[in-house]
Amino acid sequence: MAAPDFHSISSRALILLLSCLCIWPVAAESAENRWPQIALPAHARAFEIVTQASVNGLPMQLRGFLSDSGPEQLLVWFRQRLGQPLVESTIGNKRVLGRFDGAHYITLQLEPAGQGTRGLIAVTALASAFSQRAETEVAAARLLSGFAPGSRLLNHIVSSDMGKVSTYVVLTNAQDEESNLQSVKEMMRMDGLALQSVAISGAAAGARTAFFKGRNREAVAIVYRDASGQSAIVMNQIHLLVAAR
């Protein structure tokens, strides 16, 4: 069984995991600085997805694992070790467990993978998110300020791992694709990235894909018309913290 890549997880599983948080109040901050460590069965093969991430203002750690055991067998194992109270839900073919641990919320997702199971563990620092609300709002306002009034920020994911910081942003608005592309160019210019090339695809309603590069930075932006008729802007920027040798 192959380990899934981070981009496929971020687009599907993160929203599923975060949806479980909405039914709980924020816990006290007494254990804010202690990230819970989740034990795995002895036969499980763990892999890092991202060491540190912020998903729409929620600080998070993500870890994946693969197991030859089935989801139901693993559910029994994790129920015993995570303790109570424990929230359980089923979304499609995925089983999800969730519970508080001090100021953190632990979410475990299990789904079939061949004859075994693929697992995803997300630990979210809810108290930190609560204390950093002002900073999160400022970052969102900065992103939106570069686009037309009425633009909506759907996703803002920042991850830090292996000497690089990745920023993934999704916005929508009613502007045309060319106007949004110009806004993207200006935002990238202010971040020190220069436009390298633009490709226009006729297969995706005139989608524009722009590539940018700067000192220890590179980025790609895609602007297209979605099914609702709105323009969607997807930006992914990578910043190397140490210059490549």
Report on the architecture of this protein.
The protein is an alpha+beta fold. Helix content is 24%, strand content 45%. It contains five helices and twelve strands. It has helices at 6-19, 71-82, 126-131, 133-145, 177-190, and strands spanning 45-55, 58-67, 87-91, 94-101, 104-113, 116-125, 152-161, 164-173, 193-201, 207-214, 217-225, 231-240. Strands 3-4-5-6-2-1-7-8-12-11-10-9 form a twelve-stranded antiparallel sheet, with helices on both faces. Strand 3 and strand 4 (94-101) form a beta hairpin.
Strand arrangement, largest sheet? 3-4-5-6-2-1-7-8-12-11-10-9
SS element count, helices: 5
| Run of helices and strands | HEEHEEEEHHEEHEEEE
Helix proportion range: 10-25%
Instruction: Give the mean pLDDT.
Output: 81
Q: Radius of gyration, Cα only, in angstroms?
A: 20 Å
C-alpha end-to-end distance: 33 Å
Indicate the proportion of strand residues: 35-45%
Structural class per helix/strand content?
Answer: alpha+beta
What is the general shape?
Answer: elongated
Main beta sheet, described?
Answer: 12 strands, antiparallel
